[in-house]
């Protein structure tokens, strides 16, 4: 019998999508929850918000204040005027972790996922929480989570050693 992965930490998923925030079926949240679980993360909640800087910032802040180890936002990282997730995220970060965002884009591009290259998503630390923006397409989420899970576990492990 296969052993479940060791708990890498607690996570929260923020889905940035106007339709989902207004009650349409959420396709991204369950997928990210499943992929985080495969990486050893326990997902406390999935929150859907409109593509609005204040709503996104409030959801990210709530997660950080709630003490989760990882916040993954999904959507709102592109180039249209409604894609404001990076701006909302930048406001709450204490410091960026450029290598994660670069790794996510590079991995997606090498897998032929065009919106991965268009993503303006950020990654960084707020307090002791890792915050990461991912594009909203299923392909970008699958590839991004495969890249993110081990990086997030390593960073969270490093942060937790500092808190001791």
Automatic annotation (TrEMBL):
Biochemical pathway: Cofactor biosynthesis; molybdopterin biosynthesis
PANTHER family recorded: MOLYBDENUM COFACTOR BIOSYNTHESIS, MOLYBDOPTERIN MOLYBDOTRANSFERASE
Keywords, alphabetical: Molybdenum cofactor biosynthesis
Organism, as annotated: Mycolicibacter acidiphilus
Classification of source organism: Bacteria, Bacillati, Actinomycetota, Actinomycetes, Mycobacteriales
NCBIfam families in the cross-refs: molyb_syn
Protein name per UniProt: MogA/MoaB family molybdenum cofactor biosynthesis protein
Residues in MoaB/Mog domain copies: 11-155
Stored Gene3D superfamilies: MoaB/Mog-like domain
Pfam families referenced in this protein's UniProt entry, alphabetically: MoCF_biosynth (PF00994)
InterPro entries: MoaB/Mog-like_dom_sf (IPR036425), MoaB/Mog_dom (IPR001453), MPT_Adenylyltrnsfr/MoaC-Rel (IPR051920)
């Amino acid at each position: 019998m296969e052993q479940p992965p060791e708990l890498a930490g607690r996570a929260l998923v923020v889905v940035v999508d106007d339709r989902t925030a207004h009650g349409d079926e959420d396709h991204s949240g369950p997928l990210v929850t499943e992929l985080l679980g495969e990486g050893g993360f326990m997902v406390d909640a999935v929150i859907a918000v409109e593509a609005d800087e204040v709503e996104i910032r409030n959801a990210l802040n709530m997660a950080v204040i709630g003490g989760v180890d990882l916040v993954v936002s999904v959507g709102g990282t592109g180039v249209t005027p409604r894609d404001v997730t990076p701006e909302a995220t930048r406001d709450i970060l204490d410091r960026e972790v450029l290598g994660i965002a670069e790794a996510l884009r590079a991995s997606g591009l090498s897998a032929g996922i065009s919106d991965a290259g268009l993503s303006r998503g950020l990654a960084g630390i707020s307090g002791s929480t890792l915050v990461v923006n991912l594009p909203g397409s299923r392909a970008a989420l699958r590839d991004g989570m495969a890249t993110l899970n081990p990086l997030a576990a390593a960073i969270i492990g490093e942060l937790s050693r500092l808190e001791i």
